[in-house]
Design goal:
- It is a single chain.
- The protein is mostly helical.
- The chain has a single domain, classed as Cytochrome c oxidase-like, subunit I domain (Cytochrome C Oxidase, Chain A, Up-down Bundle).
- The protein has 14 helices and no strands.
- α2 runs antiparallel to α14.
- The longest helix is centred in the middle third of the chain and has 33 residues.
């Protein structure tokens, strides 16, 4: 009797699938950056469809369970950046504090919960409030799970100075609080919790977190490129900036917007000081370094616009700049820094040369134009037609630029390192 032939085909398929999953999940930034890359495109595509429905007669605006503007705000503040932030922190936290790497068995759980929760939330926006809340709960659970893993790493690390890590983890915790506030707004329809969700998300989560990462990383990157470079990382400016963020939140939630300049002018001054001392003018000898400095400069622009808006409100009682300060921060600083940092991490951790090619430089410039156009769309408030058209152009520039980024960088997360190393 002859024995049956072994199932070579199925074995090869299983081996291929196992190899793919191993490659995709062998480093936290691969999983999380890939999910974040999807969130760069799909929500903005739907938002563009919504805007065209609002501004033209081509089709009707999209119907959602909650107002689409506030769904868009939540996804852009909480749903997009957290994947890149988690992937980055799971990678660098152990390195910064000289401790053991975070194992795959740990970071897989928050990856699954964050993705599952956000996808359920996004799909449910169109048909069911209960499942929308369920998705939000799963998303928050994944967020808290990630915080717990990072806290354990921080607690057990031998490093004595954990200033940066503590601030970043605190900002991430305020982000979780903002998600919870957003969920309670949906349940209670109490506008205060929406205000808290937006305010916490910008001023206690993203602004301090990205400023702290910049404070930690930009001088280090610059010192490797710029000759005779002096590191400028004073703890004093870090704490002054954080106090300014807290002051902004305190004034904002007490509806004292006319006094926000008391917090925002010092914040803008700190941002400008770092831009100058970090030598932005010398960063353009290396494009990969320049995009980081350009992104950081948007922090000064956004804070300056917030200061001007508050001063005008104090003097004349007029709210003249609309959402231009917000979009200078969100597109100019947040999104630009995300793309600049994610591009660098992706190339470095895939064994590629740390060189920003012409295509990547061009798509980054496209994102800068999207930020400028979106800011202008609110400044030109006298012409609704021009404002609407600029808003659509900004969305189009975002989609074109970041779609190119997706096509160029997302496949890297699915393939092995070019140098043959693990990770």
């Amino acid at each position: 009797m002859t024995s049956p032939l072994p199932p070579h085909k199925n074995t090869d398929q299983n081996s291929t699938q196992s190899s793919f999953w191993h490659t995709f999940s062998c480093a936290p930034h691969r999983l999380f950056f890939f999910s974040g890359a999807i969130q760069l495109i799909v929500p903005l595509l739907l938002w563009s469809i919504e805007l065209i429905g609002r501004y033209t007669h081509i089709w009707s605006p999209i119907n959602t369970i909650i107002p689409s503007t506030w769904a868009h705000g939540f996804i852009m503040i909480y749903g997009l950046f957290v994947f890149f932030i988690m992937g980055f922190l799971f990678t660098v936290f152990p390195r910064w504090m000289n401790t053991a790497s975070i194992e795959k068995e740990q970071y897989i759980a928050p990856f699954i919960w964050l993705n599952l929760g956000l996808l359920i939330f996004e799909f449910s926006l169109f048909f069911n409030a209960s499942s929308m809340l369920s998705g939000l709960g799963m998303f928050l659970f994944g967020w808290l799970n990630g915080i717990a893993i990072l806290y354990k790493t921080l607690k057990n690390a031998p490093a004595k100075n954990k200033r940066y890590e503590t601030i970043i983890l605190s900002a991430l915790s305020f982000g979780a609080l903002g998600v919870a506030c957003y969920g309670w707004w949906i349940v209670s329809d109490n506008w205060l919790f929406m205000q808290l969700a937006i305010t916490f998300g910008i001023w206690l989560y993203l602004v301090p977190l990205l400023f702290t990462v910049s404070h930690r990383m930009l001088p280090f990157f610059s010192s490797n490129i710029i000759e005779h470079y002096t590191l400028f990382q004073p703890a004093s400016t870090l704490w002054i900036f954080l106090v300014g963020c807290i002051a902004h939140v305190t004034l904002s939630i007490n509806n004292q917007n006319q006094w926000l300049f008391l917090a925002d002018i010092p914040l803008a001054a700190v941002a400008l000081l770092h831009t100058i001392r970090w030598q932005i003018q010398r960063s353009f000898k290396d494009r990969l370094l320049a995009v980081l400095h350009m992104a950081f400069f948007w922090l000064f622009i956004g804070l300056s616009l917030f200061s001007i808006q508050s001063l005008v409100l104090q003097i004349s009682g007029e709210h003249i700049l609309g959402r231009s300060p917000l979009h200078a921060l969100s597109i100019g600083f947040f999104a630009s820094m995300l793309i600049a940092m994610a591009s660098r991490v992706t190339m470095g951790h895939s064994g590629r040369m740390l060189v920003l090619d012409k295509m990547s430089w061009g798509l980054f410039i496209g994102l800068q134009l999207a930020a400028v156009t979106r800011v202008l769309s609110d400044l030109l408030f006298d012409s609704l037609l021009i404002s609407n058209n600029l808003n659509l152009i900004a969305a189009g520039l975002w989609l074109i630029s970041l779609s190119i980024w997706f096509v160029k960088y997302a496949p890297i997360y699915l393939s092995r390192r070019v140098d043959g190393r693990e990770g």
